Amino acid sequence: MVVIGAGQSALESAALLKEAGAGVEVLARRPVRFLRRSTWLHSLGPVSNLLYASSDVGPAGVSRVAAAPALYRHFAARPQRVARASDAARRIRLAG
Fold first, then answer.
1. E strands, the chain, where?
2. Residue 10 near residue 32 (C-beta atoms within 8 A)
3. pLDDT digits over 64-80, tens only?
4. What are the residue boundaries of the structural domains of the chain, listed by start?
């Protein structure tokens, strides 16, 4: 399967296709650039392991929640609303 584009939708589609078992290639006219991660937070040794899950998706702390969706589902309704509201303000975006 070929996905054409370098935007968020193209990359999400490629990820979903890959998760579904398809062989995926992403074709783009320009390099895909992600936001840079905080190098100093990632160089704190054991503390970094507490802040970031191995998937390293999202900012410090949020990375742990993103790696454990079952934990998020078990939150009460109010904390879920607060988490969704704060997530909208700091969504992970592609640079450029």
1. 2-4, 25-27
2. no
3. 877 887 776 776 666 77
4. 1-34, 37-88
